[in-house]
Amino acid sequence: MSDEDDKKSPGQLPPEEPPAGEGSGDAREQSGRPLPPEGDSGAEPGPEQRPAREASSPAEGAEKARKSEGDGEGREAGSDASPAGQDAHETPEERKGGDSEAAPAPDAQAPRTGRQRLAQAVWPPRVTRAQLIVALLLFVLGLGLAIQVRSTSENSSLRGARQEDLVRILDELDDRTKRLEDEKQNLEGQRTELENSSDQAEEARKQTRQKARQLGVLAGTVGAQGPGIELTVTDPGKAVEADMLLDAVQELRAAGAEAIEINNVRVVASTYFSDSPGGVRVDGRKISEPYRFQVIGKPQDLEPALNIPGGVVQTLRKEQADVSVKASKKIVVDALRSAKRPDYARSSSP
Amino acid sequence: MIAVLGLIVGVVAGLVVRPVVPTLVEPYLPIAVVAALDAVFGGLRAMLDGIFDDKVFVVSFLSNVVVAALIVFLGDKLGVGAQLSTGVVVVLGIRIFSNAAAIRRHVFRA
Question: Superkingdom of this entry's organism (chain B) (predicted)?
Answer without folding.
Answer: Bacteria
